[in-house]
Design a protein that fits this description.
The protein has a single domain, classed as Alpha-Beta Barrel (TIM Barrel), CATH 3.20.20. The chain is elongated and about 45 Å long. The chain is mainly alpha-helical. Pfam families: Polysacc_deac_1.
Length: 104
């Protein structure tokens, strides 16, 4: 896919679980080298609606943000809930924690 984007000049936002970033740092480097953005897509692709509490959800979100920040040098600007499962807390967590975040 990266080659196709490169050939066509398309820039993409990749919603990429943070554990994958840790496991495959060379892919992160390739994505960034080509000028793409990496956004938050959970740490382990956890379903926000199935987490036991707001605090646990916040812990997973923060863990993912920390990995993205460490590997890209930037806080993520976008979030797409894994499986599109938001909890009743998800939007408020992002609104309170990261005012410039776009939820997808």
């Amino acid at each position: 896919m990266l080659q196709i984007y490169r050939e066509t000049g398309i820039r993409q936002t990749f919603f990429y679980p943070a554990w994958c970033m840790e496991r495959y740092p060379q892919l992160v480097d390739a994505i960034l080298k080509d000028g793409h953005e990496i956004a938050h897509h959970g740490y382990i692709h956890e379903s926000m609606s199935r987490l036991p509490s707001r605090d646990v959800e916040l812990e997973w979100i923060v863990r993912g943000v920390e990995v993205i920040e460490k590997m890209t040098g930037k806080k993520p600007r976008g979030f797409r809930a894994p499986n599109y499962h938001f909890s009743r807390h998800t939007a408020a967590i992002w609104r309170n924690w990261a005012s410039n975040m776009m939820l997808h």
